[in-house]
């Protein structure tokens, strides 16, 4: 028994690089994928997120990516944490890979004792956030992510599967409570009151933080969105779909890091992604950054709606009078579908709300993003963060009234948004 293993995982030990190579050499399929002998394999650590150790191993024939849970948050060893997050990530990949085969990675192996997950390595791909910060323009990524969200959520919802199957899956992810707690606290709660995990480095943000926390309309929106996150299990979500959870090239897009997977409102995944596009917009000084950002959000939303409704129409093609229990959502004989329209509108409102909450938590909460780090001066960084917070505050103030992308996000291009 390993003295450092958590009590409920007696065979667990944190693998170092030689340990990873030894682990892989004991798995014939993975060893064959790498090719050659263990002595010919190279290994490098690529840990980038907050939680886990991640390594890429390359051999003469191919590569794999190895991810292991730690008994604590990687970036804060004093924050202890159960190990089960790689189990949920492996489950998520197995559930959604058939729905989005070219848009994520395949789970090649999961070890339930060591909490090690092995997936395909993405040679040549960059973390999308890092690529955006270096100025790339990869027009495929946004519609690919919209397609990913539409297919992965539709395919795991009762709109496409018998409820028994959905509820069984829901029961599995309902155990992902450690990471659900993190999202509840870090994204949906902490930023809206004093909490030691919050931080920002300039008192010039204090007044906008105060505005966010004291506006009754913002408070109402935040409370409603928090409640929806817990009470609206529409589909299996990625749960942490920021631009650091995407690996891409100019021609290929893959969603990674599904450890936060949970049943919840579909607009949560949409809002996380769009929120990170908006964060990027506020860190970008190029003159048409606002116009490009609004165009990207419109492309995301239009692609998502087109794909989601295409799947829906294909799954329920018959007129409501002759169909089963989901008739409310099936088009009438004349093709109209008020139920579907209302459902999609609710996803839009959720997207806008969670987008705002993602922006806010990334600036004043625990886990900031690197986007603003490329801005050369402290004053300019503060100015941009202030502008982003003000914009997010406005989204929540008017939450539920915006109606379309232009109404919600059009201010990103107008001169009346100060600070950029
Ligand atoms: C302690 S975990 C902090 C953040 O990192 C993850 O990527 C999630 O975004 C989480 O909120
Ligand atoms: Mg992550």
UniProtKB/TrEMBL annotation:
Q: Which UniProt keywords apply?
A: ATP-binding, Kinase, Nucleotide-binding, Transferase
Q: Which Gene3D superfamilies match?
A: 3.90.1200.10, Phosphorylase Kinase, domain 1
- Provide the leader sequence positions: none
Q: Which domain of life is it from?
A: Bacteria
Q: What is its EC number?
A: 2.7.1.100
Q: Name one GO molecular function term.
A: S-methyl-5-thioribose kinase activity
Q: Which Pfam families match?
A: APH
- InterPro entries recorded: Aminoglycoside_PTrfase (IPR002575), Kinase-like_dom_sf (IPR011009), Methylthioribose_kinase (IPR009212)
- Using the record's annotation, list all stretches that form the Aminoglycoside phosphotransferase domain: 42-304
- What quaternary arrangement does the UniProt entry report? Homodimer.
Q: Which family does it belong to?
A: Belongs to the methylthioribose kinase family.
Protein name per Swiss-Prot or TrEMBL: S-methyl-5-thioribose kinase
